[in-house]
TrEMBL record:
Domain of life: Eukaryota
Name of the protein described by the UniProt record: CREG1 protein
Signal peptide: 1-20
GO CC terms of this entry: cytoplasm; endomembrane system; extracellular space
Cell location: Secreted
Family the UniProt entry places it in: Belongs to the CREG family.
Record has Secreted as a keyword: yes
Name of encoding gene: Creg1
Occurrences of domain CREG-like beta-barrel (ranges): 22-190
Principal subcellular localization: secreted
Pfam families in alphabetical order: CREG_beta-barrel
Amino acid sequence: MAGLLLLCAAAGLLLAVVGAIPPPEEAARMARFVLHSCDWGALATLSAQEGLRGRPFANIFSLSDGPPGPRGGSGVPYMYLTDMEISVQDLEINSNASLTVSLAQTPYCRKHRYDPQNPLCAHIIFVGSIVKVNDSEAVVAKKALFSRHPEMETWPKDHNWFFAKFNITNIWVLDYFGGLKIVTPEEYYSVKP
């Protein structure tokens, strides 16, 4: 019973966070909002694998920019990675990647009956590179990730997990009709979510 109450409280918190969607004219704030609302994203790399070398390769990764809740997070997409993962092997050759997150994974789009491809079901495309974080930032990344993905703490230690972040260089926001909006990293990090 306690577990069910906790699950209901968490769902209510998510609905409260997702319910306060920024207006379309605030693209930087929308980008921060969508990232903070999402627990995972599609990471695209250039494959280094035999038979796929140089071709785009997308994979799903858990992520977090901070603990869930209305505070808005840091805006930095953190990930918990291992060299055993195929996309991480690609990143060892070429760290450039793109990361897409969408409100389609939240109750917002289902509630409004928006198809994931509908621009009103906002999605954000980040371009940049994956970098391993230093020890002091690893503390922040660990708190951000393990607060949303507690299972990570139990993943096999012999897989040599490490904390990384998506170093953002370009941001595109699709949250309304009329095409993509470009947001600079400076605008993105300076806005209050």
